[in-house]
Amino acid sequence: MKIALTIAGSDSGGGAGIQADLKTFQQFGVYGTSVIVALTAQNTRGVRAVETVPEAMVAAQLTALAEDLAPHALKTGMLAEAALVRLVAKAIRENGWQPLVVDPVMVASSGQRLLTTEAEDVIRESLVPLAALVTPNLDEAAVLTGRVVHDVPTMERAGETLVRFGAAAALVKGGHLGGDTLTDVLVTPDGIRHFTRTRIPTGSTHGTGCTLSAAIAAGLALGRPLETAVADGLDFVNRAIARAPGLGGGHGPLDHTVTAPPPPPR
Questions:
Q1: CATH architecture assigned to 3-140+203-242
Q2: Which of 14, 15, 32, 210 is catalytic?
């Protein structure tokens, strides 16, 4: 059994963060491990409180996994503060953990900020160059690249910029674009690929970014090529949104019990 690691924050509502990642890993048939860097008190209506985990405890979690349960692939999510980003990037680099999916979580669905301004720069400088894939939404892509990102052409340019910054590939997510059709843009050194689908009219979108990056990391842990892992991850999330259970009074969670796409034929 392959191991996938998530380094992120805990979501008490269970729809995003560590909880969403571990549920997703389970569906893909990989063994999920975790390093919790922050605790959040939240539900579907919003984030009530955030508390970061002390650096020594984050370091101890990373060391414990390095000693006994090294991952075949990993992802980062909410990292909260610059010092924690530096600590995580150092551990990934020193342990040679790859492939890495970087989900640069900055703001919660409810608008609560989950990353300091200083940490944004550290993600760009320390974490993006380690990434096999970085998965920003439009706002995160704009922050990381310093460019306005508001349509497919600017998404393409943002992805190309992130690759120039050192990422092996970038998936710029178009969920925040208007219209009935959604386009996600994958940029690699080999070119650009668009993933287009019909928007599902729903308010149950809490944790989509976490779930997507976890699904891609799981696919990579299983040895799937990057484009296959991205396509499988997008398919998994789309079906999880379509089957959302309608829980809570705000941005509801996805249905993480949908089946994962089968491995491609050999």
A1: 3-Layer(aba) Sandwich (3.40)
A2: 210
